Amino acid sequence: MAKLSDLRDAIDQKLLVRAMAAHSPLSALLAEEAGFDALWASGFELSALYGLADVSLISMTQHLDMVRAMGEQSSLPIIADIDTGFGNAINVIYAIEQYERAGAAAVVIEDKTFPKVTSLVADGRQDLLRLEEFQGKIRAAIATRSDPNFLIIARTEALIAGLGEEEALKRAAAYEAAGADMILVHSKQKTPDEVESFVRAWSGKAPVAIVPTAYPEMNEERIKTLGKIAIVIYGNHAIRASVTAMKDVFARILKDGGIHNVNRDIVSVEEVFRLQKMDQVKADEKRFLA
Ligand code: SPV
Ligand code: MG
């Protein structure tokens, strides 16, 4: 498991941390093998894995189990998406204790009311918490963590809620004042303009994290040119890649009347054995099975 300071160090060195969404230990392992710097333990992805909407239906226990299991398969720092923190500041206290103990390197808490509605849906009900109440949740998180390298990232949904840049900047500044280590600003505009404008106007010290799902032309080169952005989260590309692959293969098997064609286009069983560390099982069998 990654040292808690790894993520903090990368951010302090002004490296752009590339976090890939994951919804399972296997996707975490694949993200690490691909070369990503961190994992985004996405609420959206885990909800989708269960065929559920991302509207606070998945419990903290389910999400924590995923985070723990990811940590067993990957040494990358895990940025845990804890939505609204599962309730008020009292719930946040318990959540922070649990996620720190589970081995997460950071949590992202968003300023929506509980239960939340997923951010990117058209015409979603996006109600924000009173600024002072969310500051209390950030203060509770900071007061609860036992290691200062466990990052508390405050996420403002002001742009998602259509409240505009001024409100987003006001909230970001208030959350930094409450102790947040970083600010995640989310937008569902189809172009990077809204987020770029926010980042240019942001005068706080806290670095920024973004999730450019809705505005994919915001590539890493463009992010680096803008500066101030420390983490880019590829928010749902693991689950979308799985859905794409499964839909394609399932349809082809039915169309072809068998598995004879798809067989050459999917990974071999041996590759899955490798991911399962079957060699180790064989070696252990030789050693220990009399
Ligand atoms: C998630 O991946 O769960 C996120 C990012 O919070 S988004 O779905 O775009 O809100
Ligand atoms: Mg989420």
UniProtKB/TrEMBL annotation:
CDD domains: ICL_PEPM. Transmembrane segments: none annotated. Coiled coil: none annotated. The keyword Hydrolase applies. Keywords: Hydrolase, Pyruvate. Pfam families: PEP_mutase. PANTHER family: PHOSPHOENOLPYRUVATE CARBOXYLASE, PHOSPHOENOLPYRUVATE PHOSPHOMUTASE. Belongs to the isocitrate lyase/PEP mutase superfamily. PEP mutase family. This is Phosphonopyruvate hydrolase.
